[in-house]
Every structure is written in C-alpha cells, then in structure tokens.
C-alpha cells in the first residue's frame, strides 16, 4: 500500500513514531537546524505534532534565520557558545546535528547542565560509556535513561537494521559491505552541488552562483570511490566508522567487517551491497519471513530493487536481491537502501528520543 | 602525463595498438557498426590507420546509414542475412558487435566461409572450443590462429586485468566483486536515455523525442541494483557471466566468485570494488610495483580515485584504493575503473585481432 493510498503526508508514513504527549511537553532544541539533517528533524517533529513553540532551532550559519517547513516557518537563532549551556535555558532535550568538533564540546556542557542530548555526530559514538543506538536493534540500552545517546553513522544504521535480523537467525562471522552513497550524505551543500552540476552539464539555465562543492571531483555522472578522508592504511574514515559502529550496535566485538565506500550521483538514500558469511546454514525462506515482519524494514520482491530514487523520503530500510552466495551454505548476499537523512539520521534520532524513558 | 601533454588525439593514446601493415591489408567488417561498441571500433581502426576502403560497416538498423567518426563518414550497409555469409564476400576478418542471437547464427556461418571472427557477444564465450581472450592475460591462446575468438563481457575484462597480476603474485582463492556500471553498457540507447533524463530533470530544453529506455527505471540520480535479468536463484545474468568468464580467462576453474552488479548514472566506464582472499600473504609494495608495470593497467595514487568520469575514453584499466583487507593477511581490496566500450569491448577486440597470427 502506497503512502498516497493511506492518505498520509508523503514521507511521514510512520508519524508520530511513538511521540506522545509526554514527549510533546518537552522543550526540544535542534542545534544545526539549517543543515539537511536538522531541517529533516524539525520536519519530523512537526509531523509528530510537537508544538511549534517548544521547538528551538539554533545554527551557526547566519543570514538564514528562517526555516521553511512545508508552510510553517521556524525562527533559527544563532548558537552563541559551543562550550557552555548558556543558549539552552529551559531546554529539556537537545539534538546535536553538528560537526564532531562542536558536539565534542557542547554535548558534555549540556549534560552537565541537565539537558538530555542525542548527538548525531561521530564525536562520542565509540566512547564505551555512551550508548550507540538503533532502537529496533539495541533500544534496550535506553532503559537506564542515559542522559547522552549517540546516533550512528548513516550507512552503519542502514546496514545494521537487516543485519541484526540475519545475526539473530544465523549468526554473523564476516561482512563485506560496498556502498553507493548519496550526495546529501555531505549535507545540503552536497545536494546543491549535485543539482548545480546536473543543470550545468545539461545546458539548463544557471540558478545562482555555483555552490562550494564538498566533493573532490564533479559528482554528476561520476563515482567517487572513497567517502571521507583516506588514512595511511588506505581505509577511508567512513569505512572505519562502518566497521567499528556495526560491531558496537550489533554487540559483536569480534565481527570481521571489510568495506568499500563510494559516493554516487544520487540525491537521497544510501545503498549497500552486503555479502555475509554466516555462523550457520542459510535458510532463505525463514530469512525472508523474518525480514518481512521485522520493524523498520520493507522487503521488496522487485528483482531490480530496491532503488534509492524510489525509496527517498520513506521511513524503512528497504531490502531486496536476497540470495544465497556462492561461498558455500553459509553465504548470503543482499542489497539494502535507506534514506540516510531519515533512518540514517533524523528519524533514528527521533526514535531514540521517543524511546528514552523519563528521567528519574 | 596526460593525453594532452603527449600531444595525442584524446582517447587514442595507445594507437596503433600493434596494428601493422599486415593487418591494414585485411578487409575488415564491423557488424553492428551503428551501436556504441561498433562505432568505437570503427574509430579505433581509423586511429590505427586502417584504410577506410577496407572497413566495411554493416548494421540491421535502417535509416542511419552514415556514421560520423570525427570528420570521417563511413557508409553503413544493411546486413541481409544472419545465417549465411553472403554479405561477406572478400571479408578477411569480421567483428561481431551484435546481440547473442545474431552472433550464434552468424559466427559459425562466417567461419565456415573462411572469415575470421571476433565475437563480442556472450553467445559463444563459454564454449570449450572457443578461446575467451584478454590479450595481456591469455593472449597465448591465440598462437594456434583460431578462426573464432570470443571477446569477454566488459565487466569481466576490466576486473580480469588487475586480477591476473594478483593471481600471478599471490594466487586467488575467493573474490567478491561489486560493480558500478555505466549507462553505455546498455549501448547507445543507454547513453541517450541517461542524457535525456538528466536534461528533463534539470529543466533544460528537450532535444527530440524521449529515447526508448533500456532500463527498468529512471537511471538519472538513481542506482539499479542488478544488471541484466535476474534468474530464479536471484543471480543476475551479468553476475553469472562475471563468475564464469573470470574463471575461464584466469584459467582458474575452481575460483569462488560472488558478485553484485548495479547500474549507476555514469555515461562511460564501469567501476568495480574488488575484495579478494589470496592464496598467500599479501605484500602491498610488491603488488603496487607489479601493477604499475603491467601492460594495460594504470595505477593511481589519488586516494579518491580512479573515477569513471576522468577515465572515460582512455585505454587502460585504472586501479586504485589498493589496501590490505581486514580478513587476515591474505585479504586485499582495490577499486578498478575501465572504459567498458574501449578495453571492455572494442579495444580488447582490436587487440585480439592485432595479436592473431596470420592463418596458415
């Protein structure tokens, strides 16, 4: 059943995502509200009927102090300090959609001031005392009502959701992940750059000045075979994160993860080709049945799907091309696509906030 | 050193590719000359200074009987029969840039009539009596002057070139290949479709009627996660070919190959992320040195390369992101990009023809 058939606002299918009156009574701050993820989060909060006057938008970028969300506009005020909680009087919960450097300073300051923090940057994800949560997988880690929770890297979150089902059924020994990551993984500048380049290459009239590209080369009709900086051992920062974060989220410290990440000219939705070696023999029928009923997942029977263009703006991680591998009875291949601004970032963060028990 | 710095015609760097006066004395036919590969082959023959009057272009498509190659035009005549050699009187060598169904009929008919055949379709590649050749790897199979030679699938040829070096140094036990394949892998219609969709999405003025798309969905700003039809076991035709052909080209019938193929919105050049399990411990320095001097390969030190846009129109298979895997000392990852119309098809076929000894 499509979104349209259910008579819902496109892209807000799952609203209100467990967001109740208890949550709506909180004063919520979005730091980095003008970025791609902050903007999406504001949109999700409004869709979950959070009162406008209890959404406080902050950003460092000046000159863009209004945010249009559908027909709603929210004021955005400048963040004055990244080291003190002075900007957050009366805030109950803050979402940090900020670069790691800012989160590293701001998150502890806010916690100390009694503000609950969900940090979407990579700054604190691997700290042993900070839970790294995809609610459908390890939401149990929120039971103790931690004041600070980290939201995973977008590719990690998207891959983790189907992998948790595979792990539960057969165990996981070894993973190869190869990604096709969207321009918007690099934020609004990524989207703007891709569209600018596409217009330019197609001879369409230019719309404004060329944006500052976050990519090392033209992305339109290209593939850039490493996301983030590449370290001395040849592994990219994104590949490193995927490896470490999957181990932490899945609770498998010994899991072997090898990956190649690449940026592709897609606006939204990361795709991942996953080749697994299991701990037990694969049973395809059982796997399909479990994937079909697992929360947060959508199974496609389209032999040429799922595809990022069609999955953009939807809640679940879409899984398809499920097949036995050629490396014996314990090998499995599949393809997963998720909207990385949504389940890979803003939606997952909102779900964490929804699942957090009230502080005692 | 770039093509420009060497003062060469862009895209014709390696000309004449071993094409000598002995080859230029042959009457050569290109069947399927109006397709993307046939067109490229005609261009390469001209760059190799093959006399125009000894290039005979045939095609089934009517109404497009002239072919512009730079400033040169070649007549294209219709192919009257796919079952008899009647169209090929006086032809010494025929390149079949034709669909499998046509090659399957035409290749034996031509051989019987004494015409040498290089077939670029998949029709005969896996026949035990037909050599499947990438000259840099198994050019030795041409020594017996076979009348019929098969040219590999484009992705197989591109992957095989660096893999042959890896195999020679360390042995290969298991491969995972994940592809990012260009629109032109589906021929001229693929390129036209991609550009039409990009113009349409960018609001550029339409140029002519929409082409008939060879893809199951819009490719512009999308990823289609299976190239060719998907069989009942979930493997796509392209994935099947890659597996079978790599075994044959590399001479490793027991090699385990697992792959995911996907189409990406790129005009030319297939990219492949390759994760290998070796037969011996990896020595990265030795591998880099050997890849750098192997014929047909170009090593890049760009941490975010090679990229298809920049490799388009060039001869070699470009290799980069060479690094140790995380699956022990015998694991290796790298990224390869090749112009699949060129080394993946037309150029490889020309190199086969150049390497074929005179018939006795």
Protein model, in words:
Chain A is of the alpha/beta class. Chain A folds into two domains: 21-124, 3-Layer(aba) Sandwich (Rossmann fold); 156-340, 2-Layer Sandwich (Dihydrodipicolinate Reductase, domain 2). Helix content of chain A is 30%, strand content 20%. Chain A contains ten helices and 13 strands. Chain A has helices at residues 21-24, 36-47, 100-112, 135-138, 154-170, 188-202, 237-250, 284-293, 308-311, 342-355, and strands spanning 28-31, 55-59, 66-69, 72-78, 93-96, 116-119, 148-150, 172-180, 256-260, 270-278, 297-299, 317-324, 331-338. Mean pLDDT of chain A is 92; it is low at 1-10. Chains A and B meet through strand 8, helix 6, strand 9, strand 10 and helix 9 of A and strand 8, helix 6, strand 9, strand 10 and helix 9 of B.
CATH class label of the largest domain in chain A: Alpha Beta
Strand content of chain A: 15-25%
**Helix count of chain A?**
10
**What series of H and E elements makes up the topology of chain A?**
HEHEEEEHEHEHEHHEEHEHEEH
Regions with little confidence, pLDDT below 50 for 5+ residues of chain A: 1-10
Query: Any idea what the CATH superfamily of the largest domain in chain A is called?
Result: Dihydrodipicolinate Reductase, domain 2
């Amino acid at each position: 059943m499509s979104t349209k058939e259910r008579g819902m606002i496109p892209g807000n299918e799952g609203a209100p995502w467990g967001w109740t009156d208890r949550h709506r009574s909180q004063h919520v701050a979005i730091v980095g509200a003008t970025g791609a993820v902050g903007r999406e989060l504001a949109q999700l909060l409004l869709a979950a009927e959070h009162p406008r006057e209890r959404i406080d938008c902050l950003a460092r970028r000046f000159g863009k102090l209004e945010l249009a969300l559908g027909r709603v506009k929210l004021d955005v005020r400048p963040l004055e300090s990244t080291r003190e909680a002075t900007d957050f009087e009366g805030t109950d919960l803050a979402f940090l959609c900020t670069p790691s450097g800012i989160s590293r300073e701001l998150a502890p300051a806010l916690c100390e001031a009694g503000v609950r923090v969900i940090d979407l940057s990579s700054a604190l994800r691997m700290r042993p005392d900070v839970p790294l949560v995809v609610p459908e997988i390890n939401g149990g880690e929120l039971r103790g009502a931690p004041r600070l929770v980290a939201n995973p890297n977008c590719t990690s979150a998207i891959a983790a959701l189907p992998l948790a089902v595979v792990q539960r059924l057969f165990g996981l020994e070894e993973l190869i992940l190869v990604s096709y990551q969207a321009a918007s993984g690099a934020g609004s500048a990524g989207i703007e750059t891709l569209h600018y380049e596409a217009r330019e290459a197609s001879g369409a009239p230019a719309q404004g000045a060329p944006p500052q590209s976050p990519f090392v080369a033209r992305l339109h009709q290209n593939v850039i075979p490493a996301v983030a900086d590449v370290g001395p051992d040849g592994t990219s920062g994104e590949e490193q994160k995927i490896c470490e974060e999957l181990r932490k989220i899945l609770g498998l410290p010994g899991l072997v993860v090898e990956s190649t990440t690449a940026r592709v000219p897609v606006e939204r939705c990361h795709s991942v080709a996953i080749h697994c070696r299991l701990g037990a023999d694969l049973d395809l029928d059982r796997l399909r049945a479990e994937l079909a009923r697992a929360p947060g997942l959508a199974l496609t029977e389209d032999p040429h799907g799922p595809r990022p263009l069609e999955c953009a703006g939807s809640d679940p991680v879409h899984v398809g091309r499920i097949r036995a591998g050629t490396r014996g009875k314990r090998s499995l291949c599949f393809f997963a696509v998720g909207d990385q601004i949504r389940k890979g970032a803003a939606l997952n963060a909102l779900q964490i906030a929804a699942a957090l028990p009230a502080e005692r």
